[in-house]
Batch of 2 targets.
Target 1
Amino acid sequence: MTFQAALDAILSGAPPDAAALAVLLACDDTDATGLMDAADRVRAATVGNEVHLRGLLEFSNICRRNCDYCGLRRGNAKVERYRLTPDEIIATACEAERLGFPSVVMQSGEDAWYTGPRLAEIIRAIKDKTSLALTLSVGERDPADYRLWREAGADRYLLRIETTDPALFRALHPDDDLETRKACLFTLKSLDYQLGSGVMVGLPGQTPDTLARDILWLRDLGAEMLGVGPFIPHSETPLADAAGGTLNQALRLVAVLRLVFPWAHIPATTAMASLDPLGREKALQAGANVVMPAVTPTDRRPLYALYPGKICLDDDARKCRGCIDARIRSIGRTVATGPGHVLQGKARSVR
Ligand code: 5AD
Ligand code: SF4
């Protein structure tokens, strides 16, 4: 199939097929311009010019898991571990609201200190004190915990599937399995969270075909937010010497996602900016419509090192807020002031 035939097929609104998606993902640089322009036009016509800000609050880097790609894996003894107290988390969220973030994402490693009830209390406090939309991203947990947090007021949940290829998932996750991850996502969906998922691009052994199948799986799941980024090898992990992903791969993936999910929220992620100072602006012009600047206290930022080269480690939430505003305006877009909830019922529709 030619690039143009694949692009026309997906723009026709027919259900996407894996072969066409793989052709788009593997396109050359000239075709990539056409792909990203098409995605940018779809983005403008559906979710519009507004860019939604989510303040990312990384509240604990303690993790019980040993994912082969991640700098926070349990086996990395070189990380200084930290855990914000409930009061610190609540105060940081309140500060984020004062700085004009309509929404925060509470993210951590899989840290069992935050039991279901403990985290529920924090969520309830933040929802009582603020009008923030609240996203959780704390990994795989029991359905009972997911339910408790939803009842406490959490609006959204982010849990990347990372890859739907069973052999690759197994190879990357010595202490996890794909079916459990999928079951967590189905549970979250059934609890009526606005659901975010996604993958890394450039994982060892991953191909355009694998990624194409990931996209179709995310579509079947009904994911409403799609967070993707390049895999960046970390020296203190088993994948230290892997090649890693590139910004170009990530931008093609963002563009294809926008074509498959015209109404979804798609962030321009920090990992993209870590590979290129203008990585997020480029993603926003290739289909993305969300940015997630850190609101994590400055002194903890260097410790939340999933991958090397993370940006803004010396900055604070106020500075990041101003910087990101300017970047969004520099490409002719506007900063959204509303909570940026998913457009109900539209997240899955193909135009
Ligand atoms: N490079 C890029 N992204 C990574 N993540 C974890 N480790 C890395 C890495 N080395 C991503 C995973 C996880 C998210 C929180 O960070 O996709 O879901
Ligand atoms: Fe832990 Fe998440 Fe890193 Fe895996 S990716 S080691 S679960 S922080």
Target 2
Amino acid sequence: MGQDRPVELPAPQRVLLSAEQVAEKVAELGAQITADYASEAPLLVGVLKGAFVFMSDLSRAIDLPVEFDFMAVSSYGHSTRSSGVVRIVKDLDIDLAGRQVLLVEDIVDSGLTLNYLRRNLLARNPASLEVCALLVRDDFQFEEDVIRYTGFRVPADWLVGYGLDVGERYRNLRDIWVVDPSSDGIPD
Ligand code: PRP
């Protein structure tokens, strides 16, 4: 079961957002999306891996016959931060032409991934493209209306849980935690 894998990862230190706070926000977002898309259910596009937990809960908070697809993207290391270049590792299966597309992200940090994905998805001629992000960095500046649905503004701490990882760990924590980068080990 991998229990013998060495554990040398920064440890979650304190809860930033409890599972209850997240659940309340997800319910609000789901209700808004249900109202906004009453005439035509959206196609939810999740960005792997981080968005899979949020998208799972969000979709069940939307009282419409939504459809699902997923993309996986990968950066080219540090060059991505300056160039905004993102590589598509897994593309969508569904044709977006004429669809009401709702892009679902766990976190918008620098905004480079979102900027790339918006341009990429708009080129596929959807009827509409909106973005729902659970977490958006406090200092992230964006053009008005780029992110239609925002869950929480969050500080520039290293966050894990509810889909967010460090070294592929902690995605399954129910709360969203701040990591202490100087520590080792697993959550208390
Ligand atoms: C995270 C998150 C976004 C991206 C945001 O993914 O899910 O896709 O980073 O960062 P940006 O705004 O600075 O571009 P990550 O690369 O950590 O991969 P993961 O979802 O597989 O954990």
